[in-house]
Amino acid sequence: MKRIFDFSLALTGLILSSPLWAVIAAAVWLESGLPVFYSQDRTGKDGKVFKLWKFRSMVKDAEKNTGVVWAAEHDPRVTKVGWLLRETAMDELPQLWNILKGDMSFVGPRSERPELVEKFVKDFPDFNKRHAVIPGLTGVAQILGSAYTEPKVKFRYDMWYIKHRSFWLDIYLIFLSFIITFQKKWEIKEDKFHILGRRFKEKVGSEIKDLKA
Q1: Which of 173, 135, 147 lies closest to 83 in space, CA to CA?
Q2: pLDDT tens digits, residue range 39-79?
Q3: pTM score, two decimals?
Q4: 52, 61, 88, 113: which sits with the fewest CB atoms below 10 Å from its CB?
Q5: Are 131 and 110 within 8 A, CB to CB?
Q6: Residue 189 main-chain phi, psi, to 5 deg
Q7: d(CA 189, CA 172)
Q8: CA 198 to mean position of chain CA atoms
Q9: How far is residue 103's CA from residue 119's CA, in Å, rounded to a whole number?
Q10: Are 79 and 59 in contact (CB under 8 A)?
């Protein structure tokens, strides 16, 4: 059921968003030239590595002299168009193709780069348990955390999702993701617990929040 849902929604999303792809591609090209797209190796289900695609939001060869590093707050490598894409998560649109192929799902733990997985496995021995499910475009860690949330907290969010995952939880998390996109809140530094609905807070919100301790 999850795979049928992912495939159908990804195909519909690709068709409906095709005019937006043209606008974003033109904006990236006009500001900083080619390439318009950016790909990275990411670790998926069962540790399989796949190519993840995004619209390029940073300057070309952003990691040429630094190697693999996380984006920082007010990162000078991010272009003006890139900041807008990141705030609205529009840089993630090409991942609809990854979902269509089956590399990703709409909801699941965030896929990490192999170099970072090696590091996280050393820090958190159970980290590979995240790879029991297909990684997601959005998820509990992506919604409730931020780019600045500690990795151990995100890991706990992901493990909570794996334990409680269901089709209806996925639908709810997708709904919350649309709200964050419309509010342009993906790049805020604070957590987003305020976005949870009352019933969700009553059932599981406190349990999730306790994971931060």
Answers
A1: 147
A2: 999 999 999 999 999 999 998 876 666 656 656 556 788 89
A3: 0.88
A4: 61
A5: no
A6: -80, -30
A7: 22
A8: 25
A9: 22
A10: yes
Could you tell me how many residues make up the chain?
A: 213
The rounded distance, in Å, linking the Cα atoms of 43 and 102 is: 13
Coil/strand/helix, residue 96? helix
Q: What is residue 71's DSSP assignment?
A: P
Cis peptide bond upstream of 94, omega within 30: no
DSSP state of 211: T
Render the burial of 112-131: b for 16+ CB within 10 Å, e for the rest.
beeeebeebeeebeebeebb
For 132-178, write each residue's pLDDT tens digit: 999 999 999 998 887 778 888 889 899 999 999 999 999 999 999 99
Residue with tokens 């994971």: 211
CA dist 53 → 22, 108, 124, 127 (Å):
16, 17, 27, 24
Would you give the end-to-end CA distance of the chain in angstroms? 35
Residue 56: both structure tokens together? 């390029």
